[in-house]
Amino acid sequence: MADPTEHLLTAATAPSYGRAIRDGVEHVARHLVEAGAPTTGPDVERLAKRVADVDLDAPVDDVRSALDELSSLYLDDAVWFHHPRYVAHLNCPVVIPALLAEVVVSAVNSSLDTWDQSAGGTLVERRLVDWTAARLGLGADADGVFTTGGTASNLQALLLARGETVAATRAPLSRLRVLASADAHFSVEKAADVLGLGREAVVRVPVDRHHRMEPVALERELLRCLADGAVPMAVVATAGTTDFGVIDPLAEIAATCARHRVWLHVDAAFGGGLLASRRRRHLLDGIERADSVTVDFHKTFFQPVSSSAVLVRDGRTLRHVTMHAEYLNPRTAVVPNQVDKSMQTTRRFDALKLWLTLRLMGADAVGELFDAAIDAAHTLYDALADDPDLEMAAAPELSTLVLRYRPAEMPVGVADELNPRIRRALFERGDAVVAGTKVDGHSWLKLTLLNAATTHAQLLEVVELVRATGKELGAQLEEAC
Ligand SMILES: *Cc1c(COP(=O)(O)O)cnc(C)c1O
Questions:
Q1: Rounded to whole angstroms, how far apart are CA atoms 301 and 297?
Q2: Cβ proximity of 361 and 302 under 8 Å
Q3: CA of residue 269 to ligand 1 center, whole Å
Q4: How many CB atoms lie within 10 A of CB 106?
Q5: Could you report the per-residue pLDDT of 290-324, keeping only the tens digit for each?
Q6: What is the Å distance from ligand 1's center to 211 Cα?
Q7: Considering only CA atoms, which of 353, 360, 299, 302 is closest in space to residue 102?
Q8: pLDDT per position as a tens digit, 354-405
Q9: Of residues 343, 337, 383, 430, the one with CA closest to residue 146
């Protein structure tokens, strides 16, 4: 048997480490160049068999063989977010400086829980927390920490809100309520569940016809909670809803929260990228009055998964996640230990990706990438406004378009049947990847645009694929009736 320490990254193996990584990078680059479509529409059974057939107890001989095997299991049939006809979920093409950082992050493998496992890494993360908080306008006492995603950031924010509310009111968990719009992300309900409140503790505040939370309805629901003897623990406003990409009226909601002394959390998982925009930062006006904010860098800052942060106006509220262990972060520590602020212990140095992105590109360039995607959504909306075959659910605010194939005189019931089929066919044929959603019980398609390199003409190609597939499948549907 060969010496297994050859596989450990040490001073002695630095040359073979370099070769392996270069081989890997070239392999991925080849796939990027050769991927002619956003997906092959792989068949689950076929891929599952290939994965199951791998003998995990019989390793391959070398890096090349491992990469070739990986191609057949994964890369040949990957779903490529950089492809112009991938317009489905909130997945972004990633920026190269962040990929450079990934190499460093995983090789050095710092853990950001304590100073003695990270040193400068802790300081880099803290600078980025401060940078983000400053762009949010949260004030001098702000703080925060990087997390694995919007779900984790929302959970931590609501955990802090729970801590503050219970400290102030002594209310039992069963009386606590979280108010969020009907279009808020499902992670709010998940968080309420995890926090011991139960999903029923989330009160869904109605939205207006643009799918924005109605401040008047928020006021009404808050009063109703109080009349019922419940305790509003937090209001969650969304800055960029997952489906429609609209921003709740933050300033009005903030005023309502201040009047009722309720914690305001702003879920800016999607809209957070506006912090880097020179043209649209004002859309987030009012966010500076939040008690906590979620920003997903792995959405609109074009970072590889995972990279998110939760920011708080008052850093002292992070004490609700603080625990001390003698071996790790004793109370008497005189060095910064980020574990004091995090729900995780061992934690990746994801912040380095954003750091190198800002150092190599600058924030304005990141903002331009997001602005370009928003421009593209608006241009496409205008181009399709009078389209006889397509209906649009709403005008875009950020970069999502919710539309459906429904020529004049097609009954809505037929469109409800047809649109999910269009989506499935586009995926299975590898033509395009679009998302689907339901609005008031009806089926729609959703295009999420995040690729600044995609042209208007390329987006129109996706639309023409939707139309052609709709015509074809619609005819079949009619024949079957
Ligand atoms: C994507 C999203 C989330 C969840 O974030 P993850 O990073 O996927 O965990 C939360 N809220 C909103 C509004 C989102 O769009």
A1: 5
A2: no
A3: 5
A4: 12
A5: 999 999 999 999 999 999 999 999 999 999 999 99
A6: 17
A7: 353
A8: 999 999 999 999 999 999 999 999 999 999 999 999 999 999 999 999 999 9
A9: 343
